[in-house]
Amino acid sequence: MTEQLFFKPEERKLFLALYHKMLRLTGDSFLPADVHKLKTQLVSSIESGKLKRDIFGLNPLLKSIQTAIIVTDEIGMKRASVLGIMLHDSVSSGVCAIEDVGNNFGSDVAGIVRGLIRVQELYEKSPSIESENFRNLLLTFAEDMRVILIIIADRVNIMRQIRDVGNDEARVQVANEAAYLYAPLAHKLGLYALKSELEDLSLKYTEHDMYYHIKDKLNETKKSRDAYIERFIQPLKKHLEDAGLQFHIKGRTKSIHSIYQKMKKQKCPFEGVYDLFAIRVILDAPLEKEKMQCWQVYSIVTDMYQPNPKRLRDWLSVPKSNGYESLHITVMGPEGKWVEVQIRTERMDEVAERGLAAHWRYKGIKGETGLDDWLTSVREALESSDGTGLEAMDQFKMDLYEDEVFVFTPKGDLYKLPKGATVLDFAFMIHTKLGCSCTGAKVNGKNVPIRQELKSGDQVEIMSSASQTPKQGWLKIVVTSKARTKIKQALKETEARQSAYAKEELERKLKNRKIDFDESTMMRVIKRKGYKIITDFYQDIANGTLDITDIIDEYVEQLRRETEIMETQTRTAEGFSLQKMEGDIDNIHEDVLVIDQNLKGIQYQLAQCCHPIYGDDIFGFVSIKRGIMIHRMNCPNAHDMRQRYGYRIVKARWAGKSVGSQYPISLMVVGHDDIGIVTNITSIINKEEGITLRSIGIEANDGLFSGQLTVMVSDTSKLNTLIKKLKTVKGVKNVSRL
Q1: Domain that holds residue 401
Q2: How many domains does the chain have?
Q3: Res 245 pLDDT > 60
């Protein structure tokens, strides 16, 4: 009876079918007792009544087994990962302990369960990760590679299941996050098929009309596209067969998301995108002949069709850090169309489709040190970053899509660095101490400065000096997250020591003059001098920019004023405060920017693109340099911000009443060009209390007029009242807010 309540009829039938499929896919990787123990644990979890559906109403066990199928069938992982997925709900809901999992299934499975639970806790109250949890999420990822792969599979599964759910806001949040976090992760790990699916589904949920517009266009052109691919392939097949090669060829249409990005980048309609597909030649070649046969195919293709040498991509000689191996060339096909040809073997194709999990099966062939180094750099950058995590997130996203260069030490050791990396980046990659003392390098035997950009094949010998220390300008030289993090750490340590010494000296000199040091009074002096960060103030004392005697004189003057008159606090126009939402139990743990009239200290700006005013539905956008930007919900830039920078979006609302503040609002008025209409419009505005007309511009043509007004208004209620009254003016057809 409990099982019937837990599963809907169609869910129970689907679960049993997937359960048998999962056992078939895992094959002999399960130990003899695993199946019985797993079944017992799942029945116990169902009977406990503790397993709950998620925010989309998805059944937890059904969702887990769907994810397990993706992990086994589409990525290629087996026992430990599958058991970890199936058991983590039981542990997180308290049905069994992590120690029980370790005893029954082994420490490997328990480790995966522990990682999945940590991620699940971050998502408990919201389906979307906020920036403050971002570092914790990625640190969890970086602990065990399998956790990354499982979470990507889980996100693919959720994106497949939420097409018809009613929670639109949560669906859009999940879709945006899939595009800016999980798709780049899948890309880095070589899961190109899942990466494309995540991007396509994200576009489907966030840009519904555009997605189906491109999809319909692809369907319309499929027949002619297939015919062209056939014309390209047929003569190529004959030449390859004549060469005695074992192979198969397939045409692959680019993903909808990829086509959409090209349309945006090239600012053209669908018809303007010409490279809609790629041809893939997949060889059945023995391991020792793989490279030779790939280059043989390259020679045949380029003999038949004119190649574009600028578009050659050679990942055969040195594979990507995620194990990806392939040879890409763009050639001029029939009818003068550019066609991308990808050349690889069956083994390479499996690695390309399934990513690292498939790569592990060929561990003896190519090492994974590049990826290990990348994960290490992720850990180091995240563990040492401070603040909201926004800079760490931006750097992390840049690292995900990096192109690579390969350089050598004098001993012949190979290192991978992102494109654009400098001598200084290389020094920090070898060792932090070497980076901090780096003065230059010998590249291919020639002396070069620390800012020298490295190229693939360079041999680099770092030169250092014990007297060298990191400089602020170094941050503009390096591109890797590890180097930036270590330089910032060194600079902060130096500044902290200097600032502490400067503060000590200031307090000592005040004491010599028998003046008490009051922290709050000194803070007002610091603020008056324009400093927002206290350490900057003391740093300027340390380096001599500020004269310590002048500071003492200002401090004494401030003390004198405070004893003569009561302190008057200057009110700001608005302030922002992070407060907890009240009322809605689902939002108890969500931070919301509450805008009122009394709070100070947090930098903000009202966005100029949409001019929000009191009463508008709003949200906050956290910028690194300009503080918090407040936008209207229907701001023309809102969708793009949510899609590209979903982790910077903060919920916001107004509090209290709008008192004393006025905002410039532009209105568009359209109507018939009647005599006196301008006078009637301005008359209504002048009669409205608390509204001021700042500017007006009218253009008339063929009996019609359009005018743009700028008025100063305090809130949306007064603005809406004004708009209603303007619409009553004879001849006015429409009034809208810009």
Answers
A1: 369-488
A2: 6
A3: yes
